[in-house]
Input
Amino acid sequence: MPIITLYQGASGSGQEVAAAVADSLGYRSVGRELLVETAQRYGVPKAKLNEIIDRGPHWWERLLQDLRPYRIALQASFCELVQGANVVYHGHLGHEFLPGVTHVLKVLLTAPLQDRIQQVAARQKLSHSSARRYIEEVDQARSRRLMAMFGVDWRDNERYDLILNMGKLKVDGARRIIAEAARLEEYQPTTASRQVFQDISLTSRVHATLMASPSIRGAALDVHAEGGHVQVTGRIDHELLEQELLKLVEKVPGVVNVTTNLYVLPPFQEP
Amino acid sequence: MAVVTIFGGTFGNDEDLARSVAKALDCRFVSREIFVDAARRCEVPEAKLNDILEKEPHWWERWLENLRPYRIALQAAMSEAALSENLVYLGHVSHGLLPGIRHVIRVLLTAPVEYQIEQVRARQGLEPGAARHFIEHVNKARTRRLMALFGTDWRDPGQYALVVNMGQVSVAGAEKIITRAALLDEYQVTAASRLALASLALSSKVQAALLNYPRFRDLNISVVADQGNVTLTGIIPVSVSEEDLRHVIEMIPGVTKVITDLVHLPSRAVGYV
Output
């Protein structure tokens, strides 16, 4: 059965829909909290991850800060969570973590603006105009976040397999449509799609492991894994780090062998 | 049973899918042909209607021409068809024509641009660059045309009940998803939704009928129908007789009572309104 990702706006019933789908298909429903929890093992502070997921970077952060380590840590954690399990993930970013894996059913829950305003106003006890402003701010932050992390626009219809308008639809109705889609042959795992998943998973886990190492964190590295063969390319600060890097990579479950293509460039030091 | 409208935006097998959904739901498959008769009845030239459905309005048309008659003709045809039978409509004007009718399930078919390019290449034998250019041109034209006609962006998913990405799913798979949605309680006809559709059909019929009278054709008045009661609101020139207007509308089958809230303005003043 496919991995299911549910993405929703600043209001809505994504969590309820995820729980209903999980019940109906015998899946586990996993939220953002567990993703953040899992990502901590890669040395990324929980508060920082929550900030990135919830708020989106300010423009100066986008200029000053490289969000790649967070993306890699979250992607590695996501792969760990969904590996070998039937999972419905409800929350941000999920639909972008596994590009090219055909057994992922990516669902966006949308709703007419007026419905969203009413929901937010009721839940957070806000006036109509404050609720509207809140939704606009959250949507904008979400746009900035996804653009900064993946270079994509979350409002692009083509990034999802299915978009459901919850304006009229009840949770059970959404559950039935998603379950129907999840049973389609097109979204079932194949040997090829499992391999694509394994490669993405290993690439991100190796990369996240390297970034979690205090001595290697500063290196500019690219990682590519294919069928258990891992290639690490890029710059390291001094040549002794290569051995440490190899040891770390070899310990990551799933690694068959490692090749490197590294060059040494000491960090700039003021005279 | 629901009325299903499908906006095919993939350059692929959209018609196969719509026909297959119609067969699965035991509904009639309809496309642009349902508008042709209505266009004739409303004295909208068929060729012009084809232009509206198929091509973009040029910028000067958007300034010079009132698209309202065409919108009325399209809405009258669509609401009449939806009232008389279960149908699956495939076309590019569906999402704007049955506003507020609960049992209408609007579907948009989308696909990644690479998929669209492949479809266009296969059908028209174009090079990838030319196919991409063709798709961009058609989509831009479609956006302008539908914006001029309905004032909305057809790509906004909020206008549809369901958006299905055909990039990965087969026609048979998409048929199952759409059919499952169409069978949900949420999209079944209720007494209230049928009444709303009947009222929309009647108000559209009244507006379409007025298009047949040169003296009423350009009136910009609001027409609201509720169970046979038709309410007209707005400003009309002194040259237009309210009695004549009432008389014409009372003759329309389905109209039981005409209520008016009309203000006469001198013809010079109307010109400034």
Notes: The mean pLDDT of chain B is 85. Residues 128-150 of chain B form the longest helix (23 residues). Chain B touches chain A through 28 residues (CB under 8 Å).
